[in-house]
Amino acid sequence: MRKAGQVVAEMHERIRAAVRPGVTTLELDAIGREVIDRRGARSNFLGYHGFPAVICASPNDVIVHGIPDDRVLHEGDIVSIDCGAVVAGYHGDAAFTTGVGAISAEAEKLILVTEQALAAGISQLVEGGRLSDVGHAVQTVAEGAGFSVVREYVGHGIGTAMHEPPDVPNHGAPGKGPKLRVGNVFAVEPMVNLGAPDTRTLADGWSVVTADGSWSAHAEHTIAVTDDGPEVFTLPR
Ligand code: MG
Ligand code: MG
């Protein structure tokens, strides 16, 4: 899983460096494909329930599952990139949100708070903790900053499949759910909206947008519970 995580980390690094005004989300997808092919990995996004690309690219009010296309990113936009890889049968899955050129202070804060919410969730992945401590920590950070967390889409266990039980919601009371044990691996992925938490799905059957049109950010890592605390597989080493 560490190897799969490192492929995802390189996809993130290269795609992040390529995000600028004038680039299309399809060009970002091609960068992801190049990394996967060069490293001899397999995409767990391509073909997933028929998904046509190796990344999800979700600009502005798109929360998750945006399909890469000829859409050009413009100065001031934000875009969430979600992607994964499989190495030797083990999966990695991670997402980030970044600005396109210079962005508003409000958009900067949305991205920063989403990253802080993810970090707060990750810090709960310690032996003996309870799974709902993760969502509680995420929700506390996001709502404490005046934003909302999406309810309909959640994090998940991950291993020999991309999505394994249990669900990892981004909200809820602490101290509930399964006890965390060394060796558990989860994908924690807050989706944070500037406005209300409600979502709707576009006619393409994939793109999930905010119901009120407000912008949304997404951040995700694949993390193991270890004897030394949480280990993030999808950060570059
Ligand atoms: Mg993901
Ligand atoms: Mg995921």
UniProtKB/TrEMBL annotation:
Sequence ranges assigned to domain Peptidase M24 in this UniProt record: 1-227
Gene3D superfamilies given in the database record: Creatinase/methionine aminopeptidase superfamily
Enzyme class: hydrolase
Positions contributing to a divalent metal cation 1 binding: 82, 93, 220
HAMAP family referenced in this protein's UniProt entry, alphabetically: MetAP_1 (MF_01974)
Family: Belongs to the peptidase M24A family. Methionine aminopeptidase type 1 subfamily.
Name of the protein in question: Methionine aminopeptidase
Native source organism of the sequence: uncultured Acidimicrobiales bacterium
Lineage of origin: Bacteria, Bacillati, Actinomycetota, Acidimicrobiia, Acidimicrobiales
